[in-house]
Specification:
This protein is an alpha/beta fold and 315 residues long. The chain contains 10 helices and 13 strands. The strands form 3 sheets. It has an 8-stranded mixed sheet with strand order 7-8-9-6-10-11-12-13, with helices on one face. The chain has a 3-stranded parallel sheet with strand order 3-4-5, with helices on both faces. Strands 1-2 form a two-stranded parallel sheet. The longest helix has 18 residues, at 291-308.
Length: 315
Amino acid sequence: MIGCGRISHRFMQGLAAVEGAELTAAWSRRSENIEEFTAKYGGKACSSLEELLSRDIDAVYIATLPDSHAHYSIAALNAGKHVLCEKPATVNLGQLDEVLAVAKARNLLFMEGMKPPFFPLYQKIKDHLKTDPMGPAGYVRAGSSVADLAHDHPNFSYQLAGGAIMQIAPYEAFLALDWLGPMTGLQAMGRFSGLEVDMFSIFQTQHNDGYSQLYCGFDLHGRGDALISGPLGYVTIHKNWWNPVKATINYLDGRVIELDEPIIAGGLNYEIDHFCGLIRSGQMESLIIPHELSRGMMGMLDEARRQVGLRFEGE
């Protein structure tokens, strides 16, 4: 584990439900977190990144903010470790391509942590539509705006590559690309509300197979659902759609199908189990979150940031 902040605790809740996997070591750039974290979950508290990467471990989970994802991913891959990295995988597409080049050269697994497609409900929707189709998806609407974050939350930090597009929009980007295919165009607007990062952004995209309308923010209350429309019906993934447990399919002929799939262990366990399975089977890439999908998500975020005027240091 690299990083012992908020998401790492949720990761450990999920890891506890995955057979044959355990935390062996942890390191954080905030040293005060490491001892507390390992005292709670086990594993060796490492005093440096080098100490962590020198240990006999199979893989590293990177739980830091986006500013450091590329650096830690490349360091772990060069140390011979497989990498599961939180979303967004890097700050921009150029960084991601550097990471993927190292993973390919080292013949190691790199996967971006994008949890929704691994939830049982999301898979159940896909399975149901194979036998009871609504036709090809042509429109996706999704978003989230979380107005109750503390003012010192790292999501607001320019130095840590924060902002609504970087912290929330990766989920929306995934949904649009997963249902509509590669993006061919994007229009975005965003406001900064006096901070260095965007506080609310909206963007609409054109794809090979249709259109999407997406939003993300930190100063309006908008925890939302998601809509996926086809010619013969539409799917509503009820809030919070990025942790999907309930969905409704409304068909043009009047039928209504309700889907309900509760989760265990917070939901990250499904993603972790998939990642561990890839390691055991010797695969270097996930077919559910392939590298090209991560590149597509990153490219979408890059273009949205370009249009709202958010550039980070070094870009």
